[in-house]
Amino acid sequence: MPIIVIDPGHGGENRGGEYGEFVEKEINPIVAQAMKEHLEKFEDVTVFLTHEVDMDMTIKDRVAYAKEKNADFLYCLHFNLSVNHNLYGAEVWVPSRGELYSKGFTFAEIEMQELTDMGLFSRGIKTRLNDRGTDYYGILRYAAEMDVPCALIEHCHLDHAKDAFAVADGEESLKALGIRDAEAVAKYFGLKSEELGIDYSGYPVSQIPVPADIARPDETEPEVNEIELTSMDQETGMATIRMTASDSDSYIQYYAVSTDGGNTYSELLEWPRPEQWDVSAMEYTFTFQLPFDTAVELRTMAYNEYDKFTESNTIGVGTIEDPERLRQEMQQQKAEELLEKQQTYTEVTAEAFAGHTDPVSAAKPTGYSIGIMVSIAGIVLLMLILLMVLIRNLRGLLRYKKRK
Ligand SMILES: [Zn+2]
User: How far is the CA of 9 from the centre of ligand 1 (A)?
Assistant: First the structure.
Protein backbone atom coordinates (compact mmCIF):
# COMPACT_ATOMS: atom_id res chain seq x y z
CA MET A 1 0.00 0.00 0.00
CA PRO A 2 1.92 3.03 -1.27
CA ILE A 3 2.26 6.16 0.82
CA ILE A 4 2.39 9.29 -1.31
CA VAL A 5 3.52 12.73 -0.17
CA ILE A 6 2.77 15.69 -2.40
CA ASP A 7 4.69 18.91 -1.90
CA PRO A 8 3.11 22.06 -3.35
CA GLY A 9 6.18 24.20 -4.12
CA HIS A 10 6.84 27.43 -2.17
CA GLY A 11 4.51 29.13 0.36
CA GLY A 12 4.50 31.93 2.93
CA GLU A 13 7.20 34.51 2.21
CA ASN A 14 8.46 32.34 -0.62
CA ARG A 15 6.08 33.17 -3.46
CA GLY A 16 7.94 31.17 -6.11
CA GLY A 17 7.73 32.11 -9.76
CA GLU A 18 5.30 34.86 -10.69
CA TYR A 19 3.96 35.85 -14.05
CA GLY A 20 0.82 37.81 -14.85
CA GLU A 21 -1.99 36.56 -12.65
CA PHE A 22 -0.03 33.46 -11.64
CA VAL A 23 1.92 33.09 -8.41
CA GLU A 24 3.41 29.66 -7.76
CA LYS A 25 2.60 29.56 -4.05
CA GLU A 26 -1.07 30.08 -4.99
CA ILE A 27 -1.35 27.75 -7.96
CA ASN A 28 0.81 24.82 -6.80
CA PRO A 29 -1.59 23.99 -3.90
CA ILE A 30 -4.55 23.88 -6.34
CA VAL A 31 -2.72 21.29 -8.47
CA ALA A 32 -1.63 19.40 -5.34
CA GLN A 33 -5.16 19.28 -3.89
CA ALA A 34 -6.63 18.00 -7.18
CA MET A 35 -3.84 15.41 -7.41
CA LYS A 36 -4.58 14.23 -3.86
CA GLU A 37 -8.34 14.07 -4.44
CA HIS A 38 -7.96 12.11 -7.66
CA LEU A 39 -5.43 9.70 -6.12
CA GLU A 40 -7.77 9.08 -3.20
CA LYS A 41 -10.33 7.72 -5.66
CA PHE A 42 -7.96 4.76 -6.06
CA GLU A 43 -7.88 1.97 -3.50
CA ASP A 44 -4.97 1.09 -1.24
CA VAL A 45 -3.13 4.38 -1.33
CA THR A 46 -2.46 6.97 1.37
CA VAL A 47 -1.84 10.56 0.36
CA PHE A 48 -0.41 13.48 2.38
CA LEU A 49 0.37 17.07 1.53
CA THR A 50 3.49 18.63 3.09
CA HIS A 51 1.37 21.66 3.99
CA GLU A 52 -2.28 22.58 3.46
CA VAL A 53 -2.12 26.25 4.40
CA ASP A 54 -0.06 29.06 2.92
CA MET A 55 3.04 28.89 5.11
CA ASP A 56 6.81 28.99 5.09
CA MET A 57 8.39 25.56 5.12
CA THR A 58 12.04 24.78 4.53
CA ILE A 59 12.98 22.36 1.80
CA LYS A 60 14.61 20.13 4.39
CA ASP A 61 11.39 20.06 6.46
CA ARG A 62 9.39 19.01 3.41
CA VAL A 63 11.62 16.00 2.84
CA ALA A 64 11.74 15.27 6.59
CA TYR A 65 7.93 15.27 6.59
CA ALA A 66 7.90 12.69 3.78
CA LYS A 67 10.51 10.64 5.62
CA GLU A 68 8.46 10.76 8.81
CA LYS A 69 5.39 9.53 6.89
CA ASN A 70 7.55 6.74 5.48
CA ALA A 71 6.67 7.92 1.97
CA ASP A 72 7.18 5.66 -1.02
CA PHE A 73 7.44 8.76 -3.15
CA LEU A 74 7.63 12.52 -2.73
CA TYR A 75 6.24 14.60 -5.60
CA CYS A 76 7.19 18.28 -5.73
CA LEU A 77 4.87 20.39 -7.84
CA HIS A 78 6.10 23.54 -9.56
CA PHE A 79 5.71 25.83 -12.55
CA ASN A 80 8.52 27.32 -14.54
CA LEU A 81 9.69 30.69 -15.87
CA SER A 82 12.77 31.48 -17.93
CA VAL A 83 15.01 34.53 -17.63
CA ASN A 84 14.58 35.47 -21.29
CA HIS A 85 10.97 34.25 -21.48
CA ASN A 86 12.01 32.09 -24.44
CA LEU A 87 11.77 28.54 -23.08
CA TYR A 88 8.62 26.46 -23.13
CA GLY A 89 7.55 22.93 -22.23
CA ALA A 90 7.46 20.56 -19.27
CA GLU A 91 10.41 19.06 -17.45
CA VAL A 92 10.96 16.63 -14.59
CA TRP A 93 14.08 16.75 -12.42
CA VAL A 94 15.25 13.59 -10.68
CA PRO A 95 18.01 12.66 -8.17
CA SER A 96 21.32 11.86 -9.88
CA ARG A 97 22.31 8.70 -8.05
CA GLY A 98 21.45 5.06 -7.51
CA GLU A 99 18.03 3.69 -6.74
CA LEU A 100 16.53 7.17 -6.45
CA TYR A 101 17.61 8.03 -9.97
CA SER A 102 16.09 4.79 -11.24
CA LYS A 103 12.76 5.34 -9.44
CA GLY A 104 12.63 9.04 -10.26
CA PHE A 105 13.33 8.49 -13.94
CA THR A 106 10.92 5.55 -14.20
CA PHE A 107 8.10 7.64 -12.74
CA ALA A 108 9.10 10.71 -14.76
CA GLU A 109 8.69 8.86 -18.06
CA ILE A 110 5.05 8.12 -17.19
CA GLU A 111 4.51 11.68 -15.95
CA MET A 112 6.04 13.13 -19.11
CA GLN A 113 3.78 10.94 -21.23
CA GLU A 114 0.76 12.44 -19.42
CA LEU A 115 2.00 15.99 -19.98
CA THR A 116 2.92 15.50 -23.63
CA ASP A 117 -0.43 13.76 -24.24
CA MET A 118 -2.15 16.98 -23.27
CA GLY A 119 -0.01 18.85 -25.80
CA LEU A 120 2.92 20.10 -23.75
CA PHE A 121 6.41 19.98 -25.23
CA SER A 122 8.86 17.75 -23.36
CA ARG A 123 11.98 19.51 -22.12
CA GLY A 124 13.15 16.22 -20.78
CA ILE A 125 13.84 14.26 -17.62
CA LYS A 126 17.06 15.55 -16.18
CA THR A 127 19.57 15.68 -13.37
CA ARG A 128 21.40 18.81 -12.33
CA LEU A 129 24.48 19.04 -10.14
CA ASN A 130 25.93 21.87 -8.08
CA ASP A 131 29.64 22.75 -7.73
CA ARG A 132 30.05 20.12 -5.02
CA GLY A 133 28.75 17.44 -7.39
CA THR A 134 25.56 16.80 -5.43
CA ASP A 135 22.02 17.47 -6.63
CA TYR A 136 21.48 21.13 -7.47
CA TYR A 137 17.85 21.26 -6.34
CA GLY A 138 17.68 21.23 -2.54
CA ILE A 139 14.62 19.03 -2.39
CA LEU A 140 16.35 16.33 -4.46
CA ARG A 141 19.56 16.70 -2.44
CA TYR A 142 17.74 16.20 0.88
CA ALA A 143 15.68 13.40 -0.66
CA ALA A 144 18.95 11.68 -1.58
CA GLU A 145 20.35 12.26 1.92
CA MET A 146 17.21 10.89 3.61
CA ASP A 147 16.67 8.23 0.97
CA VAL A 148 13.18 9.31 -0.11
CA PRO A 149 12.25 8.64 -3.77
CA CYS A 150 11.49 12.02 -5.27
CA ALA A 151 10.63 13.83 -8.50
CA LEU A 152 10.37 17.57 -9.11
CA ILE A 153 7.72 18.36 -11.70
CA GLU A 154 7.90 21.66 -13.59
CA HIS A 155 4.55 21.41 -15.36
CA CYS A 156 5.04 24.19 -17.89
CA HIS A 157 6.32 27.73 -18.40
CA LEU A 158 4.00 30.44 -17.12
CA ASP A 159 5.73 33.10 -19.24
CA HIS A 160 5.48 31.53 -22.69
CA ALA A 161 2.57 31.69 -25.14
CA LYS A 162 3.15 28.09 -26.27
CA ASP A 163 2.36 26.78 -22.78
CA ALA A 164 -0.44 29.23 -22.03
CA PHE A 165 -3.15 26.73 -23.03
CA ALA A 166 -2.19 24.48 -20.11
CA VAL A 167 -3.21 27.13 -17.56
CA ALA A 168 -5.65 29.15 -19.70
CA ASP A 169 -8.76 28.23 -17.72
CA GLY A 170 -7.25 29.07 -14.35
CA GLU A 171 -8.39 26.78 -11.55
CA GLU A 172 -9.97 24.31 -13.97
CA SER A 173 -6.69 23.94 -15.90
CA LEU A 174 -4.69 23.58 -12.69
CA LYS A 175 -7.00 20.83 -11.46
CA ALA A 176 -6.65 19.05 -14.81
CA LEU A 177 -2.86 19.09 -14.35
CA GLY A 178 -3.29 17.65 -10.84
CA ILE A 179 -5.39 14.82 -12.28
CA ARG A 180 -2.67 14.12 -14.86
CA ASP A 181 -0.09 13.94 -12.05
CA ALA A 182 -2.34 11.57 -10.08
CA GLU A 183 -2.85 9.36 -13.14
CA ALA A 184 0.92 9.05 -13.56
CA VAL A 185 1.29 8.02 -9.90
CA ALA A 186 -1.57 5.51 -10.21
CA LYS A 187 0.06 3.98 -13.30
CA TYR A 188 3.49 3.85 -11.65
CA PHE A 189 2.13 2.05 -8.58
CA GLY A 190 -0.38 -0.04 -10.56
CA LEU A 191 -3.39 1.26 -8.61
CA LYS A 192 -7.04 0.33 -9.08
CA SER A 193 -10.15 2.46 -8.70
CA GLU A 194 -13.60 0.96 -8.56
CA GLU A 195 -15.10 4.45 -8.44
CA LEU A 196 -13.34 5.50 -11.66
CA GLY A 197 -13.53 2.04 -13.26
CA ILE A 198 -9.75 2.06 -13.76
CA ASP A 199 -7.32 -0.80 -13.22
CA TYR A 200 -3.64 0.02 -13.67
CA SER A 201 -2.47 -3.18 -11.96
CA GLY A 202 -1.13 -4.50 -15.27
CA TYR A 203 0.25 -1.16 -16.45
CA PRO A 204 3.57 -1.75 -18.27
CA VAL A 205 6.10 0.27 -16.31
CA SER A 206 9.50 0.20 -18.00
CA GLN A 207 12.05 0.22 -15.20
CA ILE A 208 15.07 2.43 -15.71
CA PRO A 209 18.14 0.55 -14.43
CA VAL A 210 20.16 1.81 -11.47
CA PRO A 211 23.12 3.74 -12.90
CA ALA A 212 26.62 2.49 -12.13
CA ASP A 213 27.84 6.03 -11.60
CA ILE A 214 26.33 9.50 -11.18
CA ALA A 215 23.82 10.25 -13.94
CA ARG A 216 25.46 13.49 -15.02
CA PRO A 217 23.78 16.25 -16.93
CA ASP A 218 25.16 17.13 -20.33
CA GLU A 219 27.58 19.99 -19.79
CA THR A 220 28.76 20.35 -23.37
CA GLU A 221 27.19 21.96 -26.40
CA PRO A 222 25.89 19.98 -29.38
CA GLU A 223 28.85 18.86 -31.51
CA VAL A 224 27.19 19.28 -34.88
CA ASN A 225 25.16 22.10 -36.38
CA GLU A 226 25.44 22.60 -40.12
CA ILE A 227 23.06 24.20 -42.55
CA GLU A 228 22.57 24.08 -46.28
CA LEU A 229 20.21 26.17 -48.38
CA THR A 230 18.45 23.63 -50.57
CA SER A 231 16.09 25.99 -52.38
CA MET A 232 14.91 29.55 -52.41
CA ASP A 233 11.66 30.97 -53.78
CA GLN A 234 12.42 34.51 -55.01
CA GLU A 235 8.71 35.30 -55.32
CA THR A 236 7.72 34.39 -51.73
CA GLY A 237 11.10 34.75 -50.01
CA MET A 238 10.65 31.25 -48.61
CA ALA A 239 13.92 29.41 -48.02
CA THR A 240 14.19 25.66 -47.62
CA ILE A 241 16.98 24.84 -45.21
CA ARG A 242 18.47 21.47 -44.40
CA MET A 243 19.96 21.45 -40.92
CA THR A 244 22.10 18.67 -39.47
CA ALA A 245 22.41 18.77 -35.69
CA SER A 246 23.42 16.29 -33.03
CA ASP A 247 24.78 15.91 -29.55
CA SER A 248 26.38 12.66 -28.43
CA ASP A 249 25.45 13.24 -24.76
CA SER A 250 21.81 14.24 -25.07
CA TYR A 251 19.42 15.24 -27.83
CA ILE A 252 18.55 18.33 -29.82
CA GLN A 253 15.56 20.05 -28.29
CA TYR A 254 15.06 23.41 -29.99
CA TYR A 255 16.45 25.25 -32.97
CA ALA A 256 16.32 28.91 -33.92
CA VAL A 257 16.96 30.76 -37.18
CA SER A 258 18.77 34.04 -37.79
CA THR A 259 18.61 35.98 -41.06
CA ASP A 260 21.12 38.62 -39.95
CA GLY A 261 24.16 36.45 -39.39
CA GLY A 262 23.36 35.63 -35.78
CA ASN A 263 22.61 39.10 -34.38
CA THR A 264 18.97 38.25 -33.76
CA TYR A 265 17.21 34.89 -33.73
CA SER A 266 13.69 33.58 -34.22
CA GLU A 267 11.81 32.18 -31.25
CA LEU A 268 12.86 28.67 -30.25
CA LEU A 269 11.33 26.08 -32.55
CA GLU A 270 10.74 22.41 -31.83
CA TRP A 271 13.41 20.11 -33.21
CA PRO A 272 11.81 16.76 -34.17
CA ARG A 273 12.16 13.64 -32.06
CA PRO A 274 10.20 11.25 -34.28
CA GLU A 275 11.05 7.84 -32.81
CA GLN A 276 11.64 8.28 -29.10
CA TRP A 277 11.22 11.28 -26.83
CA ASP A 278 14.94 11.28 -26.00
CA VAL A 279 16.33 10.65 -29.49
CA SER A 280 16.31 13.58 -31.87
CA ALA A 281 16.38 13.52 -35.66
CA MET A 282 19.90 13.86 -37.11
CA GLU A 283 18.70 16.06 -39.90
CA TYR A 284 15.70 18.29 -40.44
CA THR A 285 14.54 20.17 -43.52
CA PHE A 286 12.28 23.14 -42.92
CA THR A 287 11.13 26.30 -44.63
CA PHE A 288 11.74 29.77 -43.28
CA GLN A 289 10.43 33.13 -44.43
CA LEU A 290 13.33 35.44 -45.31
CA PRO A 291 13.00 39.22 -45.12
CA PHE A 292 12.99 41.23 -48.37
CA ASP A 293 15.19 44.14 -49.37
CA THR A 294 17.96 43.46 -46.89
CA ALA A 295 21.17 41.45 -47.10
CA VAL A 296 20.30 38.01 -45.70
CA GLU A 297 22.86 35.95 -43.82
CA LEU A 298 21.37 32.65 -42.71
CA ARG A 299 22.52 31.03 -39.51
CA THR A 300 20.91 28.66 -37.01
CA MET A 301 21.25 27.69 -33.39
CA ALA A 302 20.81 24.12 -32.09
CA TYR A 303 19.92 23.67 -28.40
CA ASN A 304 20.34 20.42 -26.54
CA GLU A 305 18.16 19.07 -23.73
CA TYR A 306 20.11 21.20 -21.25
CA ASP A 307 19.73 24.42 -23.26
CA LYS A 308 23.36 24.40 -24.33
CA PHE A 309 23.63 25.64 -27.88
CA THR A 310 25.87 25.59 -30.94
CA GLU A 311 25.68 28.01 -33.86
CA SER A 312 25.87 26.81 -37.42
CA ASN A 313 27.86 27.99 -40.42
CA THR A 314 26.60 31.19 -42.07
CA ILE A 315 25.14 31.27 -45.58
CA GLY A 316 25.15 34.60 -47.42
CA VAL A 317 21.91 34.68 -49.40
CA GLY A 318 22.22 38.27 -50.62
CA THR A 319 19.31 40.65 -50.98
CA ILE A 320 15.99 39.34 -52.22
CA GLU A 321 14.04 42.12 -53.85
CA ASP A 322 10.47 42.36 -52.65
CA PRO A 323 8.39 41.30 -55.70
CA GLU A 324 5.41 43.29 -54.46
CA ARG A 325 7.52 46.43 -54.16
CA LEU A 326 8.96 45.81 -57.66
CA ARG A 327 5.43 45.48 -59.08
CA GLN A 328 4.32 48.67 -57.38
CA GLU A 329 7.39 50.51 -58.62
CA MET A 330 6.72 49.32 -62.19
CA GLN A 331 3.12 50.52 -61.99
CA GLN A 332 4.30 53.83 -60.58
CA GLN A 333 6.78 54.19 -63.45
CA LYS A 334 4.09 53.45 -66.03
CA ALA A 335 1.79 56.01 -64.45
CA GLU A 336 4.58 58.59 -64.49
CA GLU A 337 5.32 57.90 -68.17
CA LEU A 338 1.65 58.32 -69.02
CA LEU A 339 1.49 61.57 -67.10
CA GLU A 340 4.60 62.81 -68.89
CA LYS A 341 3.03 62.07 -72.31
CA GLN A 342 -0.12 63.94 -71.34
CA GLN A 343 1.91 66.89 -70.11
CA THR A 344 3.85 67.06 -73.41
CA TYR A 345 0.57 67.01 -75.34
CA THR A 346 -0.88 69.71 -73.09
CA GLU A 347 2.13 71.95 -73.78
CA VAL A 348 1.87 71.43 -77.55
CA THR A 349 -1.83 72.20 -77.69
CA ALA A 350 -1.41 75.10 -75.31
CA GLU A 351 1.18 76.60 -77.69
CA ALA A 352 -1.12 76.05 -80.66
CA PHE A 353 -3.89 77.89 -78.88
CA ALA A 354 -1.44 80.63 -77.89
CA GLY A 355 -2.82 80.92 -74.44
CA HIS A 356 -6.47 80.89 -75.55
CA THR A 357 -7.08 77.58 -73.86
CA ASP A 358 -6.74 76.03 -70.46
CA PRO A 359 -5.31 72.60 -69.45
CA VAL A 360 -8.79 71.12 -69.01
CA SER A 361 -9.92 71.75 -72.57
CA ALA A 362 -6.44 70.85 -73.83
CA ALA A 363 -6.75 67.46 -72.20
CA LYS A 364 -9.97 66.74 -74.09
CA PRO A 365 -10.01 63.98 -76.71
CA THR A 366 -7.93 64.58 -79.84
CA GLY A 367 -10.89 64.40 -82.29
CA TYR A 368 -12.60 67.22 -80.50
CA SER A 369 -9.45 69.39 -80.58
CA ILE A 370 -8.95 68.73 -84.30
CA GLY A 371 -12.54 69.88 -84.88
CA ILE A 372 -11.79 73.13 -83.11
CA MET A 373 -8.54 73.57 -85.05
CA VAL A 374 -10.30 72.92 -88.38
CA SER A 375 -12.97 75.48 -87.45
CA ILE A 376 -10.31 78.03 -86.51
CA ALA A 377 -8.41 77.33 -89.74
CA GLY A 378 -11.68 77.83 -91.63
CA ILE A 379 -12.31 81.15 -89.91
CA VAL A 380 -8.73 82.26 -90.61
CA LEU A 381 -9.12 81.26 -94.28
CA LEU A 382 -12.43 83.13 -94.51
CA MET A 383 -10.83 86.20 -92.98
CA LEU A 384 -7.94 85.96 -95.47
CA ILE A 385 -10.41 85.80 -98.37
CA LEU A 386 -12.28 88.78 -96.97
CA LEU A 387 -8.99 90.63 -96.58
CA MET A 388 -8.00 89.85 -100.17
CA VAL A 389 -11.39 91.02 -101.40
CA LEU A 390 -11.00 94.13 -99.32
CA ILE A 391 -7.49 94.80 -100.68
CA ARG A 392 -8.71 94.30 -104.26
CA ASN A 393 -11.58 96.66 -103.65
CA LEU A 394 -9.22 99.11 -102.03
CA ARG A 395 -6.95 99.00 -105.08
CA GLY A 396 -9.96 99.54 -107.33
CA LEU A 397 -10.96 102.50 -105.21
CA LEU A 398 -7.42 103.93 -105.36
CA ARG A 399 -7.33 103.51 -109.16
CA TYR A 400 -10.70 105.19 -109.39
CA LYS A 401 -9.37 108.11 -107.37
CA LYS A 402 -6.27 108.41 -109.64
CA ARG A 403 -8.45 108.46 -112.74
CA LYS A 404 -10.34 111.27 -111.24
ZN1 LIG B 1 8.72 26.61 -8.13
Answer: 5
Q: Does ipTM surpass 0.90 in this model?
A: yes
Q: Where are the domains of the chain?
A: 3-199, 224-321, 324-403
Question: For residues 114 and 75, is the Cβ–Cβ distance under 8 A?
Answer: no
- For 224-321, CATH gives 2.60.40.650
Q: How far is the CA of 79 from the centre of ligand 1 (A)?
A: 5
**Separation of CA 153 and ligand 1 centre (Å):** 9
Q: How far is the CA of 288 from the centre of ligand 1 (A)?
A: 35
Q: Is the dihedral of CA 130, 133, 138, 139 positive or negative?
A: positive
| pLDDT at res. 258 | 98
Question: Looking at residues 197-205, what average pLDDT do you find?
Answer: 96
Among 5, 3, 9, 58, CA closest to 31: 9
The superfamily CATH assigns to domain 3-199 is Zn-dependent exopeptidases (3.40.630.40)
For 281, which DSSP code? -
Q: In this predicted model, what pLDDT tens digit does every residue of 274-302 receive, in sequence order? A: 988 889 999 999 999 999 999 999 999 99
